[in-house]
Specification:
This protein has an 8-stranded parallel barrel with strand order 3-4-9-12-13-16-17-18. A 4-stranded antiparallel sheet has the order 19-20-21-26. The protein has a two-stranded antiparallel ribbon with strand order 1-2. The chain has helices spanning 11-17, 70-78, 81-84, 131-143, 184-187, 210-218, 222-236, 242-257, 275-292, 349-352, 357-369, 398-406, 447-465, 468-471; strands at 4-6, 23-25, 33-37, 89-92, 96-98, 103-105, 108-110, 118-124, 147-152, 172-173, 197-198, 261-264, 304-307, 327-328, 333-334, 343-346, 377-381, 411-415, 473-478, 482-488, 491-497, 505-506, 516-518, 525-527, 532-533, 541-544. β23 and β24 (525-527) form a beta hairpin. It has 2 domains: 1-29 and 472-545, Golgi alpha-mannosidase II (Immunoglobulin-like, Sandwich), CATH 2.60.40.1180; 32-160 and 243-465, TIM Barrel, CATH 3.20.20.80. 26% of the residues lie in helices and 19% in strands. It is an alpha/beta fold. It is globular, with a radius of gyration of 24 Å. α2 runs parallel beside α4.
């Protein structure tokens, strides 16, 4: 189904991956390394946009805007930061205009720095940056061979505040609270008081709220925005239901910026039949953008959709029965791969990463090559912005974390600061805010921080050069020290973990006698002798290519 070709040692390969053994996967998303970041928490390039709409620094700990912006991400792309990590895609939190005021929750006041309390889907939030800055970011990312995943929300709006009127009752519901034990108890309900639920089940056409029309009028966009909607509904033939308005708005962003895909938030809380509609119109917008901007296109890869289905995971995790890729609501089973999604986020990975290397790697390789996920993939992560059970919360196993994540079969998601052991606990902080501290750039300068970052970079670049890591057949070659091979099509690698100097490792099944292999970790070349390799220097990890 998929083909692989060896890429010559061309300039682009040298810049992005280094001039060694680089292979190109013709399904680049299948072996993707995705870097996930909160726009407001990554890099502050423009302090002038830090406080918009009279927002203040009066929220609970880590719940005010801290200043990160779209331009900051662009600058880090320009510096080569992501290429050095082997990153092939960036997923950033929603950039849409957020509610202007704060929302007082049980643990204190909070502002929408995270991007999930949307007020207006048609424009960016000025705390994050402008639409032009977003276009500049996407264009530069493509020049660096990096794709952009936009985080999109169709399930809910932001909460009403003294500065933000509520959406009409024809658009949203405020009750009942979700009960989780049935399909309806996940979909026809409100996740929390802070996120009014879009009535995605409605069969009655709606009109735009007067406050939104007045807002667009004040901003000089009323005619433009209504004309785009009229054209969409005429072209698509869809009824004017709330979710179809949002599908139109989300597709417009693809048509205008060339965003490569969506990470879909709260996917299981929306009727699954809606997601193929979003994919259809976003895909059409992407193809239209590519036709109009051929010089800005990376390749002919189609539009991509990644779903967040909370409690989904391979290997029999929570709501996913073992040996299936189904999600069990209790009274309905749904295979979200059949509803527009190319991949789903693997919520079980942090738990499975506690296993030993061989159990972990072999189970994932089997699921992808011989099990229910053959022909698709899933996105692994160790830490996320809202998972209360991250791997290694104390950040005491960061080298192991890198090995487990970047050498695992499947896609890999680096959460910002994984590569520098960004703290996941903050004094006075509560709940998920602990997971959302500002990026710890300062730690890169210390000897320990630089060494850890280098470890992640070497693994990331090795992974980017070899689709076999994500997609290949897995075989253990040696127990102690632990060595394994991965082979996919013509691509083949051997990895040795916890290597001890002068230990002979039999790699004859992968590399023939007298072949010269390169250790990507040290950059040294090693000759295979009688089927074995032996290294006479102290190094715990060997990456043989």
């Amino acid at each position: 189904m998929f083909k692989i070709r060896v890429r010559a040692l061309a300039l682009g390969c040298c810049v992005l991956l280094g001039c060694q053994f680089a292979w190109v996967d013709e399904d680049p998303w299948a072996s993707a390394t995705v870097y996930f970041l909160l726009i407001d928490r990554f890099h502050n390039a423009k302090p002038s946009n830090d406080q918009q709409y009279s927002r203040k620094q009066d929220a609970a700990v880590l719940r005010s805007f801290l200043g990160g912006d779209i331009e900051g991400i662009r600058q880090r792309i320009e510096s080569g930061y992501f290429n050095k990590l082997g990153v092939t895609a960036i997923w950033m939190t929603p950039f849409f205009e957020q509610i202007h005021g704060p929302w007082d929750e049980d643990w204190g006041r909070s502002y929408p720095f995270h991007g999930y309390w949307i007020k207006d889907w048609t424009t960016t939030d000025p705390n994050f940056g402008s639409k032009q800055e977003l276009k500049n970011l996407v264009d530069l990312a493509h020049k660096h061979g990096i794709r952009i995943l936009a985080d999109v929300v169709l399930n809910h709006t932001g909460p009403p505040t003294s500065l933000d009127p509520a959406w009409p009752d024809s658009w949203i519901r405020h009750e009942p609270a979700c009960q989780w034990k049935s399909f309806s108890g996940n979909v026809d309900c409100v996740l929390s008081p802070s996120i009014p639920d879009i009535r995605t089940d409605t069969k009655t056409e709606v009109t735009l709220p007067p406050w939104l029309l007045e807002k667009w009028k004040k901003e000089g966009r009323l005619q433009t925005e209504t004309a785009k909607l009229d054209a969409f509904f005429k072209r698509s033939g869809l009824p004017r239901y709330p979710h179809n308005f949002i599908i139109s708005w989300l597709s417009d962003w693809v048509a205008e910026t060339g965003i490569d895909g969506f990470r879909v938030d709260t996917a299981k809380h929306v009727e699954p039949e809606i997601w193929p509609q979003l994919r259809e119109h976003a895909s059409a917008a992407f193809e239209d953008w590519k036709r109009k901007h051929p010089a800005k296109v990376i390749d002919d890869t189609p539009f991509y959709m990644l779903g967040e289905v909370y409690n989904f995971g391979p290997l029999g995790f929570r709501n996913t029965p073992e040996n299936t890729r189904d999600f069990d609501f209790g009274d309905r089973v749904v295979d979200f791969y059949d509803f527009g999604f190319d991949s789903l986020i693997n919520m079980g990975f942090a738990s499975h990463a506690q296993w030993d290397y061989e159990k972990h790697f072999s189970a994932y390789a089997h699921a992808l090559n011989n099990g229910p996920f053959k022909g698709v993939t899933f996105l692994n992560y160790l830490v996320s912005h809202d998972d209360p059970d991250p791997f290694d919360r104390k950040r005491q196993r960061s080298y192991e974390a890198a090995n487990k994540l970047l050498l695992s079969p499947g896609q890999a998601q680096i959460y910002y600061g994984d590569e520098s052991a960004r703290p996941l606990e903050a004094a006075g902080s509560f709940g998920d805010a602990n997971l959302r501290a500002f990026m710890n750039w300062q730690d890169h300068a210390s000897p320990e921080g630089a060494a850890l970052l280098s470890h992640w970079q070497k693994l990331g670049q090795f992974r980017a050069r070899h689709p076999a890591i994500a997609r290949g057949l897995h075989q253990r070659l040696h127990a102690e020290p632990y060595a394994f091979s991965r082979v996919w099509m013509q691509d083949k690698v051997v990895v040795v973990i916890d290597y001890r100097k002068n230990t002979a490792i039999d790699i004859s099944k992968i590399f023939p006698d007298a072949e010269v292999v390169r250790d990507a970790y040290s950059g040294k070349e090693i000759k295979v002798k009688k089927g074995y390799v032996k290294v006479r220097f102290d190094q715990a990890l060997l990456l043989l290519e």
